Amino acid sequence: MEIINRTQRMRSVSRKLRREQDKTIGLVPTMGALHEGHLSLVREARRMCDTVIVTIFVNPKQFGPGEDFQNYPRDLTKDTMLLGDYNVDYIFAPAPDEIYPKNSSTHVEVAGLSEQLEGAARPGHFRGVATVLTILFNVVRPDFAFFGQKDAQQTMVVRRLVRDLAVDTEIVVLPTVREDTGLAFSSRNAYLTDDDRRAAPALYRALSRAESAYAEGERSAKKLAEIVRADIAREPRAEIEYVSVNDADTLERLDRLEDRPVLVSLAVRFGKTRLIDNILLNRARTGKTGALVQP
Ligand code: AMP
Known about the structure:
The protein is an alpha/beta fold. The chain contains 10 helices and 9 strands. It has a 6-stranded parallel β-sheet with strand order 1-4-3-2-5-6, with helices on both faces. A 3-stranded antiparallel β-sheet has the order 7-8-9, covered by helices on one side. A hairpin with a 2-residue loop joins strand 8 and strand 9. The longest helix is centred in the middle third of the chain and has 16 residues, at about 125-140. It starts with a strand and ends in a 14-residue tail after the last strand. The site of adenosine monophosphate has 17 residues, from helix 2 and strand 5.
């Protein structure tokens, strides 16, 4: 395993890989502080691809003013050890000025999927995400790139991005990995106090109640959102930012959930810590590995 800090080096390694061998490159973009969620992506990349490249880059452009960019957990030593165990070929861990050249002034904006939900709560967030992913795709030129369903809107943004800009990379989305309590793994869980940690499984519990209500025939988006809200409201430490029911392909707000894939998503604060989670309803098609099949 080689750790690469320079964009030029990453670019030349990737170019060489593509020239010398007719082999596939898999990219797993992360912000580090790795956990089981990230590792599930790495595992699948290892299974599917000849060369696995994991990027560790806390991208300043996707954090708003007053967000946790400075305090975001960083532990490159531990991450490197973990990725060594997973037989990763390269870690690309550049400093911000390697990714954004001086006077960099170009952004990528995925209009229509970036403004609502997380985009409304975090203006500019998806512009930062789309811009850094475009740069990483251009540097690495991966055949496959791996993302988690945990960040549902991000998966939609990146799929639209590669389609619209004809990026020659296939996007693979893998299911959300959860602790036994149901709490989705997240680097931000490190911020939770012990009391918050005990309270935070309320999110998935509430989403699961909505899933059961849906299975029993509930088709009102408002009712499903109310079920989720009411369940979380029983947890006094939780402060709901939004609970939303949307078309899982377009993010259109829904009233009645007829025969279409539905995304139920939420953002909830525990003190200063902001957690997101979601479930997909009526999306039965999954691949052999549990990877969601591209619609
Ligand atoms: P991050 O480091 O938070 O930017 O996440 C890097 C990638 O890991 C993104 O594609 C996330 O969606 C994915 N990811 C984060 N948490 C989880 C999880 N609990 N289960 C599956 N994927 C996850």
